[in-house]
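Comment thread on ticket #2218

A.B. wrote:
> Attaching the input chain for the structure job we discussed in standup.
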Amino acid sequence: MHQKFYITELESEFKKNGVSAIAAEQKAYMRNQFNFCGLKTGERRQLQRPFLVAKYLPIKKELPILIKALWEKPERDFQLFGQELAFKYITQLEKNDLTLFEYMITHKSWWVTTDFISVKLVGAYFKKYPELKEGITDKWVATNDIWLQRSALLFQLKYKEEIDTNLLSKTIYALVDSKAFFINKAIGWVLREYSRTNPNWVTAFAAKTPLSNLSKKEALRLLN
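C.D. wrote:
> Ran it. Output below, let me know if you need it in another format.
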């Protein structure tokens, strides 16, 4: 399917089914940072389903162009669709895909996209290219971009037994003095999730690390 036609058809489906009252509620929930078409999540996913059928997907090399076109749309629905579109190509990961993922994280940034991209896309990427994870996440941590920093914390969220605790510890220690809510929340979240797999490690780590009150509360929530 031609790139322009693909986006135009998607936009037509979203906008003709949108409800202005729902759009206003969604915009308010996102602190008025983003516009919306006015679709509830279930309805949006129903409308986008034909665009994610394997036989109709654009070829992989067109993905960066499509993602950037979707990210340029003012309505948040298109970025939400875009990240799910990118996930359709997860079995075709290439090293240069990280550039696209970084673009998605650092443009129109907010937790609702950053978390999906970190866990679903970046998490899969570093499983395929584990030799790159420390260098890249060190670079992200060194930036002043809280969304790249949050991604450095959260990409291992669903790794369970495969989690690299040395890298996780290093990343947390580098960010432990952060005053940013989204960083402290992410530290607690990744530790809480890992406590399902290794509660003793998380308990010991929380005891010896000067975590913020928020991070510690989140980390130990399943253990207390």
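A.B. wrote:
> Thanks. Noting for the ticket: The mean pLDDT is 97.
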